Amino acid sequence: MYNEIDLDKIDITLGPPAKEPARQYYFIARCREWVRDFEQRNGRVPNSCVTTFGCQMNARDSEKLEGVLKQAGFAAEPDERKADFVIFNTCTVRENANQRLYGRLGQLGRSRKRNPDMKIALCGCMMQEAGVLEKLKKSYSFVSLVFGTHNIYKFPELLSACLDSDRMVIDVWEDTDQIVEDIPSERKFSFKSGVNIMTGCNNFCIYCIVPYVRGRERSRRPEDILREIKSLAADGVVEVMLLGQNVNSYGKTLEDPITFAQLLTEIERIDGLERIRFMTSHPKDLSDELIQVMGSSQKICRHLHLPVQSGSTRILERMNRRYTKEQYLELTEKIRRAVPDISLTTDIIVGFPGETEEDFQETLDIVRRVRYDTVFTFQYSKRSGTPAAVMDGQVAPEVVKDRFDRLLSEVQSISAEVCSVHTGSVQEVLVESVNDHDPSLLTGRMSNNLLVHFPGDASLIGKLYSVRLKECRGFYYLGEGGQIIS
Ligand code: SAM
Ligand code: SF4
């Protein structure tokens, strides 16, 4: 793996190589030189802060940014106001995300007055949107570096250019067909890791900005994914989360197509790996083959996130989701037959243009019938740049709010019942951390994704541990240990 490359052996007096990822390692070595100079001038190493907005994909991208900064020699600083290099990895799924980012940037601009050498960088989905770059140039000219979602692998090269320049460095691409492997990353947890298996999205749900800012769907080659997971497992990772906007269509665009179910079967064989999770699954692409693999797997976790978005077939059609309420319900029944103890979670948007009270009742009905463990509820956001933003029938904010509140109360009472069914049983948890509020407790995650807090000491972190579930407190359990499973 390039993670083990000896950066000191790279001769930076020679020009950068053309080939990737060697080219990026050359630029990491150049950034190291900059860090050494900084240290000599200031008597300390420079520090950096990576702030992540949005989804798990962005969280995984941020681990790559952190990996590069660490290899370049920056120390991590959690407080962005005190950092020498700050990078915001942005999200743009909801309309107000951009306003919040500008607000945060304005505050940081004021902190920068105390440290004028502070470099501020922006990357991620928002940078891919029309008009954003112009606004940054006009009103936030103190920003040092801007790049998008398609060239994140070039971060070392862009960082080096930004450290050596006083001008705003900008590199935003429309799209790409390139996937560069082996850029270093800094895992947040030693025992679990996200693994990107694909990027982009081809579905164009008409409320969603993702296909416009993340580009077309591209799958990583299975051999690269397997090599990465084997090396993670050898490094102590016991759980992986396979990431993609629609993992069920994995492999379709590869030269030698393979299905997601086939990829999972290969991953299952990796020694040392104990748990496999994945997200997100689009219902229209969830195959019988995948359900069968989930049913027979020893490692795939008993949890499926299956966004429904609405319970009304009429609204689903308007959203371009390409399944009906009945098809979705049949699918959940089929999954439950194959994997009876599976926990289902979902995303629902309330107040999509044209949604009537009748449509909303269909959504309440699907929630009552599927009985989800958890529902992520969203008020429809009129995301500019998406076709839905100019659709007729935008629902009045007070109506959206009222439906949202009714949905939330239904969801909460059902999930309290559904989640509590495990009370008294002994479950395997992966111990993740010391509890935030009570240091005598540990927090672990069950296969079905529910959290359990139980007494124990930090030496258990990263271990699979059996815990008896004493009491359900809505969305989590209090438990008692237990013994180490592995
Ligand atoms: N690819 C995933 C899928 O198909 O479910 C999820 C991607 S999206 C970033 C995550 C969730 O954000 C979606 O499932 C949807 O519920 C919500 N979302 C996307 N656009 C939205 C909008 N304009 N307003 C409200 N919620 C939105
Ligand atoms: Fe957005 Fe639909 Fe693609 Fe998910 S599948 S990212 S909701 S367009």
Automatic annotation (TrEMBL):
<feature type="binding site">
    <location>
        <position position="125"/>
    </location>
    <ligand>
        <name>[4Fe-4S] cluster 1</name>
    </ligand>
</feature>
<dbReference type="InterPro" id="IPR038135">
    <property type="entry name" value="Methylthiotransferase_N_sf"/>
</dbReference>
<keyword id="KW-0808">Transferase</keyword>
<dbReference type="GO" id="GO:0046872">
    <property type="term" value="F:metal ion binding"/>
</dbReference>
<keyword id="KW-0949">S-adenosyl-L-methionine</keyword>
<feature type="binding site">
    <location>
        <position position="205"/>
    </location>
    <ligand>
        <name>[4Fe-4S] cluster 2</name>
    </ligand>
</feature>
<feature type="binding site">
    <location>
        <position position="201"/>
    </location>
    <ligand>
        <name>[4Fe-4S] cluster 2</name>
    </ligand>
</feature>
<feature type="binding site">
    <location>
        <position position="208"/>
    </location>
    <ligand>
        <name>[4Fe-4S] cluster 2</name>
    </ligand>
</feature>
<dbReference type="Pfam" id="PF01938">
    <property type="entry name" value="TRAM"/>
</dbReference>
<keyword id="KW-0004">4Fe-4S</keyword>
<dbReference type="InterPro" id="IPR006463">
    <property type="entry name" value="MiaB_methiolase"/>
</dbReference>
<dbReference type="Pfam" id="PF00919">
    <property type="entry name" value="UPF0004"/>
</dbReference>
<keyword id="KW-0963">Cytoplasm</keyword>
<dbReference type="InterPro" id="IPR005839">
    <property type="entry name" value="Methylthiotransferase"/>
</dbReference>
<dbReference type="InterPro" id="IPR013848">
    <property type="entry name" value="Methylthiotransferase_N"/>
</dbReference>
<comment type="function">
    <text>Catalyzes the methylthiolation of N6-(dimethylallyl)adenosine (i(6)A), leading to the formation of 2-methylthio-N6-(dimethylallyl)adenosine (ms(2)i(6)A) at position 37 in tRNAs that read codons beginning with uridine.</text>
</comment>
<dbReference type="InterPro" id="IPR002792">
    <property type="entry name" value="TRAM_dom"/>
</dbReference>
<keyword id="KW-0411">Iron-sulfur</keyword>
<dbReference type="GO" id="GO:0035597">
    <property type="term" value="F:tRNA-2-methylthio-N(6)-dimethylallyladenosine(37) synthase activity"/>
</dbReference>
<keyword id="KW-0819">tRNA processing</keyword>
<feature type="domain" description="MTTase N-terminal">
    <location>
        <begin position="46"/>
        <end position="164"/>
    </location>
</feature>
<comment type="subunit">
    <text>Monomer.</text>
</comment>
<feature type="binding site">
    <location>
        <position position="55"/>
    </location>
    <ligand>
        <name>[4Fe-4S] cluster 1</name>
    </ligand>
</feature>
<feature type="binding site">
    <location>
        <position position="91"/>
    </location>
    <ligand>
        <name>[4Fe-4S] cluster 1</name>
    </ligand>
</feature>
<dbReference type="InterPro" id="IPR007197">
    <property type="entry name" value="rSAM"/>
</dbReference>
<dbReference type="GO" id="GO:0051539">
    <property type="term" value="F:4 iron, 4 sulfur cluster binding"/>
</dbReference>
<dbReference type="InterPro" id="IPR023404">
    <property type="entry name" value="rSAM_horseshoe"/>
</dbReference>
<feature type="domain" description="TRAM">
    <location>
        <begin position="420"/>
        <end position="483"/>
    </location>
</feature>
<protein>
    <recommendedName>
        <fullName>tRNA-2-methylthio-N(6)-dimethylallyladenosine synthase</fullName>
        <ecNumber>2.8.4.3</ecNumber>
    </recommendedName>
</protein>
<dbReference type="InterPro" id="IPR058240">
    <property type="entry name" value="rSAM_sf"/>
</dbReference>
<dbReference type="InterPro" id="IPR006638">
    <property type="entry name" value="Elp3/MiaA/NifB-like_rSAM"/>
</dbReference>
<dbReference type="GO" id="GO:0005829">
    <property type="term" value="C:cytosol"/>
</dbReference>
<comment type="similarity">
    <text>Belongs to the methylthiotransferase family. MiaB subfamily.</text>
</comment>
<keyword id="KW-0479">Metal-binding</keyword>
<feature type="domain" description="Radical SAM core">
    <location>
        <begin position="187"/>
        <end position="417"/>
    </location>
</feature>
<keyword id="KW-0408">Iron</keyword>
<dbReference type="Pfam" id="PF04055">
    <property type="entry name" value="Radical_SAM"/>
</dbReference>
